[in-house]
Amino acid sequence: MKEINAENLEDFIRGTAFLGTGGGGDPYIGRLMVQQELEKCGAITLLDPDELTKDHFGISLACMGAPTAFVEKLPNASAMIASMERAEKELERKFNCIIPLEAGGINATIPLVVAARLGLPVVDGDGMGRAFPEFQMTTFNIYGADVNPFVMSDDFGNTVLLNTDAAIRTERYGRPVCVQMGGISQCASYPMDGPTMRETCVPRTVSLAIEIGCAIREARSSVSADVCDAVVDYFKNASPNPRFASVLFDGKVQDVLRETTAGFAVGRAKLTALDDPGVEMVITFQNEYSRASVGDRTLAIVPDLITILDRETGEPITTETLGYGQRVKVVAIAAAENMRSPEALEFIGPRAFSIDEDFRKLETLTWQ
What we know:
This protein is α+β, with helices and mostly antiparallel strands. It contains 11 helices and 17 strands. The protein has 2 domains: 3-203, CV3147-like fold (3-Layer(aba) Sandwich); 243-364, CV3147-like (Beta Barrel).
């Protein structure tokens, strides 16, 4: 039986920072929160999606808000439990497992904190396979799960319940509420039975995060290995589902334009190549990195994963900590196949991020 414990926590946290693709909040805070709970419970059990039955009834837990707000306002596990309990009251049924909404950042760790407190297992999967900024941008929604009831809680015991005809409307109604709650709200959504979770999730992403973190750690301990290249090699050789991966750029952060607006952290970063300062890469983001380009040439675009790593340590750098002068490598990874389908691209393709171009697979775009 798989589990999250004190031995693999560091690997897991580093892997979630990688899968956060720049968003999801400070992984250090997530580590402290999970570590505190592990000291009490010892370990958190993971359920493989193939083990799920009709007797399983799960809820997806996540924070809504801009990563920049997380710097000063921490996630609140008690408020998250309040949202979960309000959903149980609405449905007149108790949840017996938890499934993360996304695989990146704080939203990959807060479900573990709640699970540890309540003594519940966590499904080894999620609804994004990475991090996305909006609640309709999930494989749960894409493949037919119902977002309702959607419950939001703040730090003062207040809850807001939404029942809508579409997940995108839930996002549109819920985001202004989140802003009024101080920029962060703790949300419970997508209640599902076992077969629905199995059919709609991106499977085994908790395990994936552990393996990514392990690959970075082992490469760091080797005097001859390039950490960023080691991550790329991990994805290319992953069994049973290898993915295309590439180091897109080796450079220095030259400029960052970032603002928090309408509940999102939006902006762009400009990088210059270390071997040729005349070559520039621009990366745009909405909470997470969404497009990487050199000149008018796109090199990677959502839903494929773009992450910025410290070029020496391989440590993922989030949008709120990206700053002038950092020496970095930009790494891109092909998204899981169920995130590249025509149905998925309607919700998580470039045009869902107001990028006026069609999705093209990473393996057809890379230039090196």
